[in-house]
Every structure is written in C-alpha cells, then in structure tokens.
Design a protein that fits this description.
heterotetramer, A: alpha/beta, Elongation Factor Tu (Ef-tu), domain 3, Rossmann fold, seven-stranded antiparallel beta sheet, seven-stranded mixed beta sheet, about 35% strand, disordered N terminus, C: alpha/beta, four-stranded antiparallel beta sheet, 9 helices, globular, binds flavin-adenine dinucleotide, binds flavin mononucleotide, binds FE2/S2 (inorganic) cluster
Chain lengths: ~270, ~270, ~300, ~300
Amino acid sequence: MDNRYPYRKGFLMFQSEYKIQSITQLNPTTYSLVLECAELAAESWCGRFVNIRCGEKPLRRPISISEIDKENGTITLVFEVRGEGTEWLSTRRAGEKLDVLGPLGNGFFPDSAKRAIFIGGGIGCPPMLGAAQEYGENAEAILGFRSAAQIILLDKFKACCQSVDVTTNDGSFGVRGFVTDVLADKLSENKDCVVYACGPMPMLKGVAQMCAQNDVQCFVSLEQRMGCGVGACLVCACKTHEADGEHMRHVCKNGPVFDAKEVDFGG
Amino acid sequence: MDNRYPYRKGFLMFQSEYKIQSITQLNPTTYSLVLECAELAAESWCGRFVNIRCGEKPLRRPISISEIDKENGTITLVFEVRGEGTEWLSTRRAGEKLDVLGPLGNGFFPDSAKRAIFIGGGIGCPPMLGAAQEYGENAEAILGFRSAAQIILLDKFKACCQSVDVTTNDGSFGVRGFVTDVLADKLSENKDCVVYACGPMPMLKGVAQMCAQNDVQCFVSLEQRMGCGVGACLVCACKTHEADGEHMRHVCKNGPVFDAKEVDFGG
Amino acid sequence: MADLRVNIAGVAFKNPVITASGTFGFGQEYARLYDISKLGGISCKGTTLEPRMGNLSPRIAETPSGILNSVGLQNPGVEGFLKNDLPLLENTDTVVIANIAGSQIEDYIETVRRLQGSSVDMIEMNISCPNVKEGGVSFGTSPESVERITKQVKAVAEQPLIVKLTPNVTDIAEIAAAAEAGGADAISLINTLTGMKIDIETRRPLLKNNTGGMSGAAVFPVALRMVWQAANRVQIPVIGLGGITKWQDAVEMLLAGATAVQIGTANFTDAYTPLKVIEGLDAYLDAHGEKSVMDIVGKVQVW
Amino acid sequence: MADLRVNIAGVAFKNPVITASGTFGFGQEYARLYDISKLGGISCKGTTLEPRMGNLSPRIAETPSGILNSVGLQNPGVEGFLKNDLPLLENTDTVVIANIAGSQIEDYIETVRRLQGSSVDMIEMNISCPNVKEGGVSFGTSPESVERITKQVKAVAEQPLIVKLTPNVTDIAEIAAAAEAGGADAISLINTLTGMKIDIETRRPLLKNNTGGMSGAAVFPVALRMVWQAANRVQIPVIGLGGITKWQDAVEMLLAGATAVQIGTANFTDAYTPLKVIEGLDAYLDAHGEKSVMDIVGKVQVW
Ligand SMILES: Cc1cc2nc3c(=O)[nH]c(=O)nc-3n(C[C@H](O)[C@H](O)[C@H](O)COP(=O)(O)OP(=O)(O)OC[C@H]3O[C@@H](n4cnc5c(N)ncnc54)[C@H](O)[C@@H]3O)c2cc1C
Ligand SMILES: Cc1cc2nc3c(=O)[nH]c(=O)nc-3n(C[C@H](O)[C@H](O)[C@H](O)COP(=O)(O)OP(=O)(O)OC[C@H]3O[C@@H](n4cnc5c(N)ncnc54)[C@H](O)[C@@H]3O)c2cc1C
Ligand SMILES: Cc1cc2nc3c(=O)[nH]c(=O)nc-3n(C[C@H](O)[C@H](O)[C@H](O)COP(=O)(O)O)c2cc1C
Ligand SMILES: Cc1cc2nc3c(=O)[nH]c(=O)nc-3n(C[C@H](O)[C@H](O)[C@H](O)COP(=O)(O)O)c2cc1C
Ligand code: FES
Ligand code: FES
C-alpha cells in the first residue's frame, strides 16, 4: 500500500547514545544542539528527522535534522521548548549523551538544478536549512516569525541562499504580515520554481493553496504525534488524496515531506 | 486510639525546598548529606526523620535525621543507595535544593542520665548517632557491618561514646559475628541500662529477645513502607501487643521508635 | 478572582477541591502544615460500624507514576469517629464528608444511622468493598446491587448521599445510572483499580494482601474517561477523582463533567497539592474570562 | 544459559518474548535495527477482513508513564496481509502470530478461513473491538459472547487459537474461563484500558477519537493482577502483557503464571527492549540456578 511513497529500504537506522558536542540558546525558547553521531550523519539527508528519548518519558520526541556535517560526523538539531520533553532536552549539557533513534523518514529529494523557494514558519525554519544549503544559489528563503525576538538562523540562511525575506506578524522586523504575502509577490514574478514549506498548519495550508492556484509544485513537511517513529505503529496518520483514491499515510514513514496537492489539510 | 504513643501536638512540620550544603560519599553505597533547614532543624531531635521527594517518584523517601546542628541550622542525613529513589538522591550536588517534609515521627526521648547501649546494624547506625551524642559519656555503641568496607561513622561514634564495639560478619574488622554477641557480654556484666537499636529486622528481633530475657528496657527504630509520612494514610502499620491488647500502630506517627517488648516482630 | 463556589446536592462548597478518603486521615495531620479550612471539603477516612485493624504490612508499593495500597479499611469504627475525630473538625470551615464502608448492607445502614444528628455534612458511600453475602464480589460491580444498597442507605440518611464507584467494572455508565436510580444525590469516582506487584527475589507479592488498589497519576486517563462517561449518563452531580496531581488535571475533570474533584495520592507527593489546585484553577478561569467554575463544568467539546 | 524455550499449544518458541500486536507492524521496520529472528514470536498488526483506514489523527497521546492510542485498526485487510506482509516474514525464524479483529462474528470466521494454509503459526483473536450486532459493546466483555465467538472461530482454525482479552471488565477470571470453555488454546492479556485526555486550552479531547486505549508501564500492575487471576483459573497457557518495559517486569509476569510475555509500547521508548528482556531473563534464571524458564512459571508464593 505504500508504493507511492516508497520507504527507502536498505538505508540504515540506529538507536544509540551519542555525545552532545554543544548546545546553544538561539532565542528565549529555542536551542541548537550539535550531536556527534558519525554513523547517523552518514545516513542523513535534509528533511529527515531523529527521535529523541527525553528522560523518563515513554515517547521519544521527533526533531528534524537541520544541518548535516558528514565530514565531522555531526548533525545539528534546532528545537523549541514546547512541553516537558523539549524542556528536558534544553537542560542537557555538552559532553552528556543523548539516546537517539534515526535517521528517520524520507525527507526531501532535492533537485538542486531548479529554483527553489524555502518557506519556514517559526520552528519550521530549521528543517529547511539543510535543503537550502544543498540548493545554494538556486535557493530563496522566506522566513516567518511572530516578531523580531523569535528570529532564528537568519545568518545561516543568508549565508547559503540567493535571497532571504523575513516576515513578522507585528512588523518588528522585515515585512509586516505573512510568508504568503511574500510568496504571492515572488510567484507573480516567476512561477518556474518548486516550493518547500514547513511551519504551522494554517501557514502550510495557505502556501499549498497559493501554489496550487499558480500551478507550482509544493512539498510540505508535516508534523504529527508519533509513537514508534519508524512506521510500525501507524499512529502518525495523515490523510492524502492521491490519483488512486484516499489513503492514510504515515508522517514518520511516508513523510514527513508530502506533495502538498495530495495532503488532506482537513484530516 | 493513639493515646499510648501520643503524637506531640504543637510541634511544627514543614514541607519546603532546602539547600544542600554538602554531600559526601562514606562508602561505596552510602552518602552523607547536610541540609540547610534552620526551621526544620529547630524542631528536630534524635530518632525523628524527614520524607524526601526524589525526582518524579510519587512517594517520598523516609530518611532518619542522623545529626542536628541547631546553631548552624542544619541536619545531617546518611543514606544508602537501595533503589531508584536513593540513587537519585545520591546524584544531587551541593547548592541544589531538595524538597523535604519534616521533621516527622516521635523519635527517641532520651533520658541521658542513664547508661545507654546504642546498637546499629549497617544503615541502622546513622539514626543512633544523634542520640548517642546526647548521652555522651553514658553512651556505649555496638555497630555491626557486613565487612570492613561497609563501616561508616565510626569516628563520629568514637568521638561521643564511652566505648564503641564493631562487629563484622566476616571478621574483617573488630569482632567476627553479630551485634548480639557483644550485647550478650555487656549485659552479662551489667544489666543497668537502656538499649536503643536500629537495623535489619532479624537483628532487631535478636536484640529485643536478648533484652527481654535480661529484663532490660529496649527501644527499636522500625522501618516500614510509607505513603504520607505524617499519619494520615495508615499504610505504615506495625502490629503491637500492648497492655490493653493488639493494636495497629503507625511507624510514621507512633514511631519510628517503639518499645521493643510491644512490637509484634512477626506482623 | 473567579467564583469558585459549587453546590452539590444542596451543600455549598467554597471551592470544588476536596481531599480524598483514606489519604488525608481526619484532616488533623495536614492541619499542621496549612489551614485546612481553605479546602472545599474533606472526605474522611473510610469508617465502618466496628473498629478494624486493617491488613498486615507492607500495605503500600510504588508503581510507575502510581501506588498500590492495601490498608484494608483500618479505622476506629463509627463510634470512635464520632467521639474522637469528628469533634476536631467541628470548628473547621469546610464541608465534612463521612466516608463509610461495610461488608453487608446492614452494616452500611447502621453506620449511617449512627451518623444522623452529627455534624457530618455529607455521606460518601464506598461500595468497592467485598460483599460477603454476594460471595465476595464488591457491592459496586453490579447495577442491581448498587441500586439496592443506594436505596436502602439513602432511606436512613438525612445528609446528602454520595455513592463512590469502583472503576473495576465493564460499564461505568450503567453503574452510575444505577446509583442515580437508587436515589444517590451525587456520585464520586474513581476508587482504586486493583493491581499487583511481585518481588522477583523473594517471589512474593510486595503487598502482604497480595493485591492492592492502584491510584496516582497513572490512573488519571482511566478516571477521566469514566467521569466523562458517567457525567454523560446521569443528571446528579459527579465528583471526579483518580490521579489528579496538578490543577490542569482538575480542569480536565471539570471539563469532562465533574462538579468537584478530590485529591488523594498527590497529597503524599506534595502536601500542598490541594491548595495549588485551587490557585491554579482560579488563575485558569481568570485567564479564560470565566466568571464561575460552574461555567466550565462539562464543557469539553468532543470530536 | 538457561533453557528459554517454551511451548504454547504445540507451538515451540525459542524464548518467551513476543512483540505485541499493533506496536511492531509486520516486523520489517524493526528488522532494520536488529535480527528479529531473535524474538520468540511476533504478533502482527491486527488484521480485518477488509482493509481499514483507521481513525483520524491525532491517534496518540502521552500520559504519566503511559500512552493512549486510537489507531482504530488501520490495516491492509487479510488479503493484503497475505500478499504483501506475511511473505516478508517467511524466512524469519520466529513464531508468526496473525492478530485478527472484526465487528461481527462472521468477519472473524472469514478472516480465519483466509489464513488457512498460510504460513501463519498461530492466530490471536482480539475481542476488544465493538460488536455491532450486540449494540457496540465489545465481544470481550461478556462470558457468553466470549465463549460463543471462541467456539465458532476455533472451529475453522487449524492453527492454535489465542484469545486476547480486554481488561475493561469486572471479572477477568470469568472471561478467561469462558475463552477456555470455548476451546481457546491459550489466552493473552491485557489489551488496552480505555482512557481519555483533554486539551484544556482547546477544550477538546487530545485524540480525535475522543477516547483511546491506555498502555505502557502505567498499566503494568493491573495487567499483572489480571494475568495472575486468569492463570489461577484456567489450565491453558497464558501470555502476559501490558506495561512490560524491562526484564524484571517479564519475570513478574512469568511468576504470576504467564508462559510467555509480549512487549508493546516499550518498543517505542527503547526499540531494543525485547532483546534486553530476553537477556535479562536468561541472566536471572542463571543467577537463581533455574535450568529452564518453565521452572519459574506460576511460582509466585502468595501470602
Ligand atoms: C517529523 C517532525 C519533525 C519535527 N521537527 C522539529 C524541530 O526540528 N524542532 C522543533 O522544535 N520541533 C520539531 N517537531 C515538533 C516536536 O516534535 C514537538 O515540539 C515535541 O515533540 C514536543 O514535545 P514536548 O514534550 O516538549 O511537548 P508536549 O506537548 O509535552 O508533548 C506531549 C506529546 O505530544 C507530542 N507532540 C507535541 N507537539 C508535537 C508536534 N508539534 N509534533 C509532533 N508531536 C508533538 C510529543 O512528542 C509528546 O509525545 C517535529 C515534529 C515532527 C513530527
Ligand atoms: C523511618 C525510616 C527511617 C529511615 N532512615 C533511613 C536512613 O537514615 N538511611 C537510609 O539509608 N535509609 C533509611 N530508611 C530506609 C529508606 O527509606 C529506604 O532505603 C528508601 O526508601 C529506599 O528507596 P529507593 O527508592 O532507593 O528503593 P526502592 O526499593 O526502589 O523503593 C521503592 C519503594 O519502597 C520504599 N522502601 C524501600 N525500602 C524501604 C525501607 N527499608 N523502609 C521504608 N520504605 C522502603 C521506598 O520508600 C519506595 O516507596 C528509613 C526508612 C524509614 C521508614
Ligand atoms: C492509602 C489509601 C487509602 C484509601 N482509603 C480509602 C477509603 O478508606 N475509602 C475510600 O472510599 N477510598 C479510599 N481510597 C481511595 C481514594 O480515596 C481515591 O479514590 C483513590 O486513591 C484515587 O484517587 P487518587 O489517585 O487521587 O489517590 C484510599 C486510597 C489510598 C491511596
Ligand atoms: C499503537 C497501538 C496499536 C495497537 N494495535 C493493536 C491491534 O491491532 N491488535 C491488538 O490486539 N492489540 C493492539 N494493541 C494493544 C497491544 O498489543 C497491547 O495489548 C497493549 O498495548 C498493552 O501492552 P503494552 O503496554 O506492552 O503496550 C495496540 C497497542 C498500541 C499502543
Ligand atoms: S510513529 Fe509509528 S508509524 Fe509513524
Ligand atoms: S505513612 Fe501514612 S500513616 Fe504512616
């Protein structure tokens, strides 16, 4: 049943304890953590994620791989404190070990010869970074935040992308408004591109609609509450409308990146 | 129903976070922890205990107050790592805060004019120390350990007691054998004393029997699994045979120190 | 400051937070820590007609996020309660609930009779105890027996009667309906879920009673589901308990349909839990622009 | 190295550790992490006659030491199972258990018929699903219906039949006895305890299905008690599960009377749990001078 989104067999996954090389605070609630995990980094590519054991919590927490440094055998995770699990994660220290399962998911399959627009909303920005780095000159980024205080990774995006637009809801930095405002301008100028987006559901829905109206291919990275993270428990369901009908796909196995025109944003 | 062992009303108890002044390892599994808790120290006396919250555990861990320093507003707790709660406790660091409920229980009511023999078995030694310090010249101690490696607090007992005998099961230090062997000798010489004992149940039973046979008053400090620690939940029951019949007393409220001749060591 | 008052069967509570039977004694121990008149109510230790010694120790074991207990209803008997324990609560400005138990219907009836004319504000009937006549299964597990005992006990009780339900049943809504049909003025749920723990070194159950009642955070999802199911079935007020450890849990219980909550095991972990729940609830109502706690009762919006 | 082999209804298991239905897919995902032929057995994802989409997301919520799930039996249907999933397990040297479900007896019977002649070693019948004909209550909650469905399904099954019991019942021993009377070759328990969780900001249940099944460490004491009660009642082998997260839990289950154990939710926390349980069990037996795992089954010494 999963033939549309084949899970790449043969790729390795690991569950092991890896050393935290560094942990840095990016804004009042967001942290960047570099993990020494050569074997895991070797199997990673942008858009994939790892599942992290947080103290005594029964469920691991899924966090996207933001940057990959295969040479040094590290990956960078950027996460926001949302609840007890991420709170625990934010209090780890360099040198400690972290129990990590991964890499997981299909991630992006970038075709970096094409012009690509990367759209990140808040904590949806980090998963875009690795892919933008692959596209380099062909990458344009639109990053949306609530206000200036929340901005993260701007320098990193600037370092790799051709252009970076920032929007804030309150206008405290960049364009006042939403990422879709900037996207509309860009698409009205040139529709020859692919759009990648990650962020809150309303944003993804807006981006997907705009792309559909403009006949632009769009991939969205979805979040869903997870159990196993590997495709075995079927809890992370996402309804899709595909050519052959309705399906219940799974964010951890078939995603987290989906073709936006197939995603049922209602379900 | 609790009139035989009146809970001293009017004494204060506290539940608060207190700073750990120091934590030191005494032997491979035993730690000594000094807590800065002036208000709690002021209401403490020997034989009482505190109930310590250990991480996320639903039940607090009862630990006896070993030494009290009212002047400096500290108490000393000596504990052995037995399971997850005490393991957690052993990894605390000076400067951190500990959530403590106490002081609890009746403890000893020392009549320090009398000759007293303090018997401690292993981790049963610490609760005896504070009382022995009060008796000073009138205190004699018999401390039993499995072997030399387990010995704790010997210098402290030596510093306050008239005499200290140590027994080890394997003879690696002091007398090979049990505390009762030494007690038998002492009682055969002089029965004019009171005996206080804390340690494993078989030891307490042996000490109690020997005292009963010799008509020597004996108080034992008992352990029982606890819920509230304050007398509200009735889980820490200990059966007693008193003049007016059988009772179910509670270690946290009526004890932890009981008159040995009333304790039902079977129940 | 939102209005925290609730009214259950004509009894006015200053707030919807009650301490649960068996975990709070008769209030005096915790009165040494804080002013217990701040509580909405106190459900006293389960009381039987005659004094009971209870089971042998150990009577408690810790489990993941929960505990097991097998106190076995140790209590001074209803006369001891009336003589020694109740008087100490007489000047405390909180609702005093007598929690009663027995092994035959006659015991319950006689216990309630003795409570007539006392200062007890309400009676909570614990029907999780084994019913000797019906062969050891508890009164609380068949709708017929729940209705019958409720009717008979209600007949002799002047005080409003709360029937406390056991969760060890197939269909809690049916049991709740039976209590209502029997004339209960309110129901409270849940009592403990029966559980066990074995020491793998001694190969003996940790509890001397072999099995015990599970309570604490671990059971909260089951309790919440049952409160929701029961509240959807009956018209009488529902008091929700089982695993409440923080104010957020209390809000969930109220949203699920409880008019008040009880706090049990959490008292052991943090003695101030009931006060923290009262404060948290108040702040939640203020933050959400709710004038009265009653405005959120049953307001869960199911999918 | 103690002898870890057990035999359940004529089926030889190399060790008593089985992965639980619904938490381990059809084994292939975890096969990327370790050699799944090290497992005693694999209970496959619950399979129905027709493919099912399952419930809408969110389908999972975390609770204190546990989880709630409401997958709603998403599965490719028995034909999909036979065609795509079972073949991948054919070269794996472990016991393959097909877990089946349905909403009418006829569905169960037809599903089992289709499994005849396949490489499935055993069938585990999940009777916690709502019974459409009997008005939505589950097949597993009345002794009569358990006996009836067991008898009818057993009649068409060549493979040994395990009946998987729901814990949401008043008297588990009675249900276990009914399964035995119906001809079950073994029973497994427990399935999930029904629970709920509400988001206090949105005032909606966290699960789109409103309620879900609770599993994980939190339920272990309840599961252990039920396994003990069931094992004391029936002669057929009992497979114990519910909240096992470490080898010590498995030992408790065996002491309580289980011949084998299943590991579910713990796979999510630590994918290596089944292997760690096998190793720990082996070391425990050696340390206690036990030659075979069978020597500790049912050896709890009650007070
Ligand atoms: C594929 C994927 C990639 C992600 N990448 C990132 C990332 O790079 N950086 C980042 O900050 N966050 C990311 N998230 C979201 C992150 O997983 C959640 O914020 C986190 O699980 C919250 O855990 P908590 O204990 O702090 O919160 P709690 O609310 O206490 O968590 C309770 C439960 O709900 C789950 N949960 C809560 N929110 C979410 C959510 N949004 N998505 C999935 N599960 C959730 C938790 O995992 C846990 O099981 C990602 C989610 C997914 C599915
Ligand atoms: C009044 C009193 C005073 C004590 N004083 C000391 C002391 O000064 N130093 C010291 O090292 N130990 C003392 N103990 C024993 C100490 O409480 C236990 O070793 C500790 O609770 C074990 O917790 P754990 O989480 O490490 O072990 P676990 O076995 O994981 O604990 C599981 C549960 O059992 C309880 N428990 C386990 N063993 C005991 C025990 N022996 N007594 C009571 N409850 C137990 C725990 O509190 C917990 O609720 C005392 C006990 C009592 C009752
Ligand atoms: C030690 C203990 C003793 C209890 N005794 C009684 C009792 O006498 N009568 C009663 O109705 N419930 C009794 N209970 C059950 C509690 O009142 C409550 O229903 C249960 O513990 C669930 O709530 P909780 O999770 O908040 O503790 C007792 C619970 C505990 C832990
Ligand atoms: C996500 C999930 C899906 C499940 N699906 C099934 C199923 O399809 N069939 C079944 O019999 N049990 C199913 N179960 C129940 C488990 O097999 C097991 O009985 C239960 O989770 C208790 O064990 P545990 O605490 O080890 O998880 C499922 C459990 C979970 C968590
Ligand atoms: S989280 Fe288990 S299938 Fe996706
Ligand atoms: S621990 Fe609650 S009465 Fe002793």
